[in-house]
Amino acid sequence: MIELRGIGKSFGGRTLFRGLDLELVPGTTTVILGRSGSGKSTLLRIVNQLERHDEGTVRGAGVEIPAGLPHRQWLRAATALRRRTGMVFQGFQLFPHLTVLDNVTLAPRVVHRLPREPAEARARELLELVGMGLAANRYPARLSGGEAQRVAIARALATEPEVLLLDEPTSALDPASTFDVVRVIADLEKRGFTLVIVTHDPDLGRDLADRVVELGGPAGAGAALQPA
Ligand SMILES: Nc1ncnc2c1ncn2[C@@H]1O[C@H](COP(=O)(O)OP(=O)(O)OP(=O)(O)O)[C@@H](O)[C@H]1O
Ligand SMILES: [Mg+2]
After folding, report:
1. Do 212 and 225 form a contact (C-beta atoms < 8 A)?
2. How many Cβ atoms from other residues are within 10 Å of residue 228's Cβ?
3. Got the DSSP string for 147-176?
4. Ordered domains of the chain (ranges, CATH)
5. Are 202 and 224 in contact (CB under 8 A)?
6. Pocket mutation for ligand 1, best pick of 17, 31, 40, 42 (most atoms within 8 Å of C-beta)
7. Fewest beta carbons within 10 Å, which of 22, 99, 134, 164?
8. 36 C-alpha to ligand 2 centroid (Å)
9. Which protein residue has the closest C-alpha to ligand 1 atom 27?
10. 3-state DSSP: the chain helix, strand, coil percent, rounded to 5?
11. pLDDT tens track for 157-173
12. Contact criterion met (CB below 8 Å) for 173 and 146
């Protein structure tokens, strides 16, 4: 699936992690823990190559991306990898001028050139899956945080990714909304999706994780730990 070997990343002379190994096994959930600024979002963005790594190799989607690959080669490989992953960004980032349904169908229609009808049929199924089936025609401004997050999950799944990456899916939410979102994520896990979840909520981590990666923790940067 997707495999990271010996990954290192620094910003302006500050090393976030080095020698980090991570294999995303199909059907498993990997949780990335760590305090603010430890590099959790950066690691997630390296998994789908929205961010380039300084050391090591990322493999997946039939491509191999060593650090320092020339830009054109990197871009081609990164695009292939990105097409196999779905991303739920920190803070939802729904398109405010589009309805819920159009938010979910946009990537399949524009990037994958799916016609409107099958794109909408699939979007409605995904909205049902996340408990937002009745909200298809609403605009993001009319959604609560938990509802917006569940739409963001449906949108990330619309391109049928092999791996779903979630950046702090509950950090902006009240307890009731957190409960709804955690239930959706647990349901995806049960259905065999491959998930990578960034959180600084250790409870969320423990409940859902097959594997925990702790950044900047007491065990040292990038230590991969098995859950207790
Ligand atoms: N594009 C960038 N250029 C320079 N520095 C960056 C860049 N992206 C991230 N950083 C720095 O790298 C560090 C890690 O950032 P990152 O966003 O990965 O942390 P995080 O663990 O996700 O934090 P949080 O829990 O607050 O979301 C921070 O110090 C941040 O300022
Ligand atoms: Mg972050």
Report:
1. yes
2. 5
3. HHHHHHHHHHHTT--SEEEEESTTTTS-HH
4. 2-225 (3.40.50.300)
5. no
6. 42
7. 134
8. 7
9. 36
10. 40, 25, 35
11. 999 999 999 999 998 89
12. yes
